[in-house]
UniProtKB/TrEMBL annotation:
Protein name: DUF2231 domain-containing protein
Domain DUF2231: 6-150
Keywords: Membrane, Transmembrane, Transmembrane helix
Record-annotated membrane-spanning stretches: 12-34, 41-59, 86-105, 117-137
Domain of life of the native organism: Bacteria
Pfam families: DUF2231
InterPro entries, alphabetized: DUF2231_TM
Keyword S-adenosyl-L-methionine assigned: no
């Protein structure tokens, strides 16, 4: 997908990632540290993480199309390189959500996981969540620099 209604698809898709990835990360962290939140939000977190994982390659592919249209500059190249790393963060967020779902289902069935394993899941989710938020910021900032620094 290169354009949507005459606009570059990347410009539209990137807004889903910019909103959904940090939102999913924050909700996942909340689920990891607060069991009551996990009971209510775990399936939403799993669904959102799956959506982010599917949208990420679509967004980067649309970005590569746009990169060829606007021309390659060092700042656009930097943004593209950072954008290509987002799939790793999306996949890690999906793994974190799956682990939260496993912990939730185990607890619901009365077979709670060991305290060490549960703590390990919480640490993993927090690290992945924070890293995802930071990476989305870095990618977004480089994209804004690529877009607006050439127009100033």
């Amino acid at each position: 997908m290169s354009t949507f209604n005459g606009l570059p698809a990347h410009v539209l898709l990137v807004h889903f990632i910019v909103v959904l990835a940090p939102l999913t990360a924050v909700l996942a962290i909340l689920c990891a540290v607060w069991p009551a939140a996990r009971q209510r939000l775990v399936w939403l977190v799993l669904t959102l993480s799956l959506i982010v994982t599917v949208l990420t390659p679509l967004t980067t592919d649309a970005g590569e199309w746009l990169e060829h249209k606007v021309g390659r500059s060092p700042i656009v190249h930097t943004h593209a390189e950072l954008g290509d790393t987002m799939i790793f963060f999306s996949l890690a967020l999906l793994v974190a959500a799956v682990l939260l779902a496993v912990a939730h289902v185990s607890a619901a069935r009365g077979r709670s996981l060991s305290t060490v394993f549960t703590a390990g899941i919480a640490v993993f989710v927090v690290v992945v969540g924070v890293a995802t938020i930071v990476q989305v910021y870095r990618i977004g900032d480089s994209g804004a620099q690529a877009t607006w620094s050439q127009r100033a």
